[in-house]
Amino acid sequence: MTSSSPYDPPAEPDHGPARPADPPRLDFDRPPAVTAHQRPVRPTGRRVRGRRRRTVLLLVALLAVAGTVAGLTELTPRPADQRPATAGNPRPASGLGADPRVEPGRYRTQASGSFAAADGRSPVRGYDGPLRRYRVAVEQGVGQDVDAFAATVDEVLGDRRSWIASDELRLQRVTEEAAADFTIYLATPATSERMCAEGGLTTERYTSCRLPGQVIINLARWMESVPDYGAPLEIYRTYVINHEVGHELGEEHQACPGPGEPAPVMQQQTYGLDGCVANAWPYVDGSRYSGEPVDGV
């Protein structure tokens, strides 16, 4: 606050020193006067609106950034060796066809109905006989990697316990649909049911099936196996590939030979083992292993 200096009268030598001026009076009930250059300038309505708009935009931008960061954090997977391994969520083994963006044991069931085929060709597997070429395709958007699934199929069909053990058949995976004799599909329950129904087969969204030129693997069975199978998931996956490809090669259903015996690969193990124990291979100990044919199935 600015104030005027008190007036000092001239000194009078004959009356002693000049009397000091009275101190300025302070009024505690009234705020100090404010001069024109000290008065705060109130912002106009346009400035207030501008400031509010900038504040709102800043808050919206901060919320958007926070949401993006949270979404990226949620979608970013941990490396497989850092995920907790539990009975219901095992760590993925090599060649299991898993997409690293989806936790092991989980998959997406929303059906897109469109498929992506694996690239490249495999070596020719087998030693003699006609060459049958196959391609591998996975339904898009289900969280499964097509190249990993193809690697599993190649490994199964190229094993000496698989169909090439007859020495009367050779197999090779190709990319081009025109060059393939048949295609192995990995499809959601809804899509597999629709595809199988087109050939007159009823799967109730539960089983896999085979139509001429099409081996259709049900994604739910691929990821979960079946209750009371009594063997690891990898064994069931090997079985379902050999079983459905066996149909493509002309094999029919077979029965369990007896309690405690290995189940023939052409037995419908998805529906139960009937006293047999799980078996994924058509050849056991170097010999073709089979059971009695099942009529009308």
TrEMBL record:
The chain crosses the membrane at residues 56-73. Pfam families: DUF3152. The keyword Membrane applies. Residues 12-30 have a biased composition (Basic and acidic residues). Residues 1-49, 75-105 are annotated as: Disordered. The keyword Transmembrane helix applies. Keywords: Membrane, Transmembrane, Transmembrane helix. Coiled coil: none annotated. Residues 105-274 form the DUF3152 domain. This is DUF3152 domain-containing protein. The lineage of its organism: Bacteria, Bacillati, Actinomycetota, Actinomycetes, Micromonosporales.
